[in-house]
Amino acid sequence: MSDDNAIISIRNLDKTYASGFTALKNINLDIRRGELFALLGPNGAGKTTLIGSVCGIVTPSGGRIHANGYDVVRDYRAARSLIGLVPQELATDGFESVWATVSFSRGLFGKPPNPAYIEQLLRDLSLWDKRHARIMELSGGMKRRVLIAKALSHEPEILFLDEPTAGVDVDLRRGMWEMVHGLRKRGVTIILTTHYIEEAEDMADRIGVINRGELVLVEDKHTLMAKLGKKQLTVYLQDPLNGLPAALARDGLEVSNDGYALTWTYDLHREHNDIAGLMRDLQAQGIHFRDLHTQQSSLEEIFVELVKERS
């Protein structure tokens, strides 16, 4: 069933290469207009193939993809004009200047010249001082900025960021995310793949996990963390325990090797996690504690567990 607010709609998408390798298996996915969707998965999971299929770079073996109602195969030019892509690789026209490269990219999509827009784009990406430099003269980080500028040159409604901050410096990463926040405010739909899972945790509205060509799940970020996350309570004791008294026995409760800590791992979505009861039982047993610490599982831990379970 399709989402009425979907700007990208993918149905029964398959991709098998001539070698016989199946990169995508029956992918069904709706990307909502204006959201930031994070696509996570290990290397070789199918992330780049999926993005390439939507952008018209990869020809699917089966299924259909629509971008804002346009079939990406039948209506390629109309669909592609809506999409900006920042690819992983740094292949750029080495002998062209930054200004010429970005301006030419805008023209490729049939957009009329707009020097004021290109200037603002280069300023936003800290490229204005390099506008006359040839691409081949730039550092890797600057080349990455040029790729972003090219992707945004035709003012797309949909932006794909395929591992955009891999191997770039902290300043560029921070600047990029400020720019992404600005694009979202303007209503641009953003699809992000990343190895920096904290980026997805900070920014995404929804998370999709892909593994071995299959979409494992698609979930609202907060719902995913509530459903699959775990919380851990550690009680630091004044005196060591030789073992766990029967009166304290609970699923997930363990004594540390040195006996000075009790650690209780429990599901966040379980209705009754009786921490107060544990505290009462400790008191009843004459066990005194000096400190408490709680820790919630991160999105990265959830992701690792999901992939492990389905491998």
* Number of distinct helices: 10
- Count up the domains: 2
User: What's the N-to-C terminus distance?
Assistant: 28 Å
Mean pLDDT comes to: 86
What CATH architecture label of the largest domain applies? 3-Layer(aba) Sandwich
Structural class, please? alpha/beta
Q: How would you sum up the major sheet?
A: 6 strands, mixed
The number of strands is 14
Strand arrangement, largest sheet? 6-7-8-3-9-10
CATH superfamily of the largest domain: P-loop containing nucleotide triphosphate hydrolases
Radius of gyration: 25 Å
Query: Which fold name is given in CATH as the topology of the largest domain?
Result: Rossmann fold
Summarize the helix and strand pattern as letters.
EEEHEEHEHHHEHEHEEHEEEHEH
Helix content: 25-40%
Q: Write down the CATH class of the largest domain.
A: Alpha Beta
The low-confidence parts are none
Percent in strands: 25-35%
Question: Which of globular, elongated, flat, extended, rod-shaped describes the shape?
Answer: elongated
Organism: Parahaliea mediterranea
Domain ABC transporter: 8-237
Protein name: ABC transporter ATP-binding protein
GO molecular function: ATP binding; ATP hydrolysis activity
Describe the structure.
The chain is of the alpha/beta class and 311 residues long. The chain has two domains: 6-225, Rossmann fold (3-Layer(aba) Sandwich); 229-309, Alpha-Beta Plaits, CATH 3.30.70. It contains ten helices and 14 strands. Strands 6-7-8-3-9-10 form a six-stranded mixed β-sheet, sandwiched between helices. It has a four-stranded antiparallel β-sheet with strand order 2-1-4-5. 32% of the residues are buried. The model has no long low-confidence stretch (mean pLDDT 86). InterPro entries: AAA+_ATPase, ABC_transporter-like_ATP-bd, ABC_transporter-like_CS, ABC_transporter_ATP-binding, P-loop_NTPase. One of its GO terms (molecular function) is ATP binding. Keywords: ATP-binding, Nucleotide-binding, Transport. It comes from Parahaliea mediterranea.
